[in-house]
Design brief:
6 helices; alpha/beta; 24% strand; 7-stranded mixed beta sheet; 9 strands; single chain; 209 residues
Amino acid sequence: MLRVVVMVSGGGTNLQAVLDAVKDGKITNAKIVGVISNRADAYALTRAERAEIPAVCISRKDYAQREDFDRALLEAVDSFAPDLVVLAGFLVILPELLVKRYKNRMINIHPALLPSFGGKGYYGLKVHEEVLAHGCKVTGATVHFVDEGCDSGPILLQRAVEVKQGDTPEVLQRRVMEEAEWKILPQAIDLIANGKVIFKEGCVFAQES
């Protein structure tokens, strides 16, 4: 049984998609054992409580030094003894030690088709604003493994979403979540939980059923 910790900063819609997928049997051989947020007011913590999943807030505001916050964050993750760490809208630069400790065991969901519209500053509505500003006809979402860079780790899954005439950033954001993010993040966890992910020459592949 794969032990999964989900890290999130906001409302937790992707967390909810994962919880629903576990409940509905779309994710097998996995259990969500903990939720970590950096914001005490994150609705994701309420979602965790309702699902009877242990949750903790590690806020940068509670620590005078960044090093102390990094240490507390690492300790919080380690306390759940996870096999997989899922970043589901966790808007914090991760400590290098955390990334190294969970190398090939940490994934992130990004609301664009990487490597486009990724990297520093590309999160939330900003991604969708840039997609529209560039006149893109297609966007989507990406699940990738986390490395020391920003949105630069090996890509596991992607799903394309049509950009429609008249879209606002908010409308496009919702469509990307519904048609891509909420589908490929649970799918990725299920693939990993069932041993269907292969690393080869710096790339990652989903094994065919």
